Structures are given as C-alpha cells and as structure tokens.
Amino acid sequence: MKNAIILVFTLFLINCDNYGTMLEFNGGELYYTSSVSEREAYKLGEYLVDAEFFDGDGKTIQLNKTGNTYEFRMVIKKGTEKDEEFIQIAKIFANDLSEYVFNGFNVDIHLCDENLSTIRVVVPL
User: Fold this and answer.
1) How much is the pTM?
2) Which of 22, 80, 96, 113 is at 20 to 30 A from 90, Cα to Cα?
3) What CATH number matches the domain at 20-122, 3.30.70, 2.60.40, 1.20.58, 3.30.300?
4) Which residues lie across from 23 on neighbouring strands?
C-alpha cells in the first residue's frame, strides 16, 4: 500500500512539472512552458488581471507556443466546449490576445480538462 501511495504521489508531481513554470495573478495560476519567455507570461498575466479574467476565482491557464502560434490553454468546466456562445467569445478573446499581448501573432484557445489536456481548440475569427 505504501508503495502505491508513493507511486501515485510521484506521478502527480511529474504531471505538475509538465505544466511549466507557475506565476500567480490575483488568485489565478498561469503556467508557461519553455517555449515562452517569462516576460511574455508576465505580460499575459497582467493583461488578464486588467481584463478581470483573473478575478480571484482561482482559474488555471497555461501559455505555450508552437511555431509562430501562441496556445492559450485554459481549464474549463465539462460541457463548456459545446457552448457555442462561449466559443464565439473565445474567438474574440483570441483576437484580443493577439492584438494586445502578442504583437499580432496567432493565438489559439485550447479548452482543457483539469489536467490541461486539450478537449477542443478554438481558432480566432
């Protein structure tokens, strides 16, 4: 039993390490991967506070970059990925992030489960 607990705890730590480096903004957790600079992550975090996305409710996101496209990965409640009104808002949000945070580079929104595994990708308008 003790070995099983140690194994589960070790796997949990490995999963957390895969999220990247964590920054905290107004109760929100922003993880960023090695493909993103700390400066880019801070700029995003400050924007999310100003936009009241990080509003003290404990949201979790991860910032990654693949090629020239930023990936804004956010944990959502199950079923939100099917809400077309939410999807339209996410498309607008992706455009805003591109314009105001990432100097016109493409931004895709990844709607993720609690383990930051992608459920659906939303591309901007």
Assistant:
1) 0.83
2) 22
3) 3.30.300
4) 30
